[in-house]
Amino acid sequence: MLSADTRQRLLIAVAAATRFGSGILLGTGLAFYLGRNDASALVVGLVTTAYFLGMTVFSPFWGAVADVTGRRRTVLVATGLGATLALAPLFLFSGVWVPILSRGLYAVFAVGFAPVMLAVVSARGGDEDRGRSLGFFNAARATGFTGGQLAVGMLLGLLAPEGVYSVIVAVSLLSTLVVVFLDDSVAPKPDSQPTVGELLAEVRRRLLPAVDDRDHLRRNGLWMLYVALALRNGTVMGLMGLMPVYLPETLGISEFLMGTLLAINPAGQMVFMLLFGRVADAWGRKPLVVVGMVGSGLFALVAAAATLFSGPLRLVIAGLSFVVIAAAFSAMTTGALAFIGDVAPDERESELMGLRSTAKGIGGVFGPVVIGGLAGVVGYAAAFAVGSSMAFLAAALAGWKLVESREGVVFPGREPAPVDD
């Protein structure tokens, strides 16, 4: 018989795997269909931009709603149902802009999952095991990405678009059903439930804090972490949004091999997330953030270098780029999440986890537009190389401004401080 703790861990793992699996099926599938219909690199990139625009606005919103009401499970169920219903336009309408608009609408709700679930997972881990707990969650998330990428390579060749969309709906609905059984008793409960007006006013106050209510954003340089995450995501999401076109058209890779290559990244994360979760607890958060951002820049350079080779070696170099980003993303994400969990006030943890998604979303909005636009002028390889500069700048900013948050760990040359002015 499974213990209560094991059952909850299993529910979290299944919910994460299916939520992120459905998202990657949708994003890769829509980008592939647009590319096959001769859409420009800029238009294909807008599939990613639409998602991250929704993330930028609504991820911290749902996190703040969960914090204010104390009803994390309710928020997870409601946003899951909304995300599933947002896929309806794909079955009812056609045209180039329908996939972009549908993915944006999907994002409005689907992005509520990460900040709320991350707050649950962070609280379950506590101060001592936060890194391990977050590493477990991210490994489950990576499992969903891996399955989604492997599946999409096969589904695109086997099913008509409507069949692929039906699979996405089923996986999204499964994630929603699973979180119904989640134990959200770890969420801080308010003294009384706010009215709708009070809820909106408090959410607005949290998302747009007054000048004298921003100390929590300055703790240990937290605000600069968000800036660095936006820049880094501009590089990586700019590339990832174009991969469903770059791999088959520029590198000449088949649909099945495309799905296999794209799966290397999340498959690697399943291992690296668990590893770096332990590293974050033992060695601190800041080194992982900085190294992960440097690795994100290297990913862009290695991906661009694949065009310099031919035959099997081209495939190997392309595959290597995804190994690099798997390690880089795992290091950066585990370090950043643990950092936020360390410095966030308990009553604002979901909100600040959501603000992390907003920062990433900003990069996801401008990155695909910038790199997609460049690719149409100078080609994919040159655009990827230029785009790497954003990730390297992010690493420099993180190394300069972040103050290690793990108690007992001091990054060379800096002392932990409650507030970094």
From TrEMBL:
The keyword Transmembrane helix applies. InterPro entries: MFS, MFS_dom, MFS_trans_sf, Sugar_transport-like, Tet-R_TetA/multi-R_MdtG-like. Keywords: Membrane, Transmembrane, Transmembrane helix. It is a multi-pass membrane protein. Coiled coil: none annotated. One of its GO terms (cellular component) is membrane. The chain crosses the membrane at residues 12-35, 41-63, 75-98, 104-123, 135-158, 164-182, 223-247, 253-276, 288-309, 315-340, 361-378. CDD domains: MFS_MdtG_SLC18_like. One of its GO terms (molecular function) is transmembrane transporter activity. It is found in: Membrane. The keyword Repressor does not apply. It comes from the Archaea. Its main location: membrane. This is Predicted arabinose efflux permease, MFS family. It comes from Halolamina pelagica.
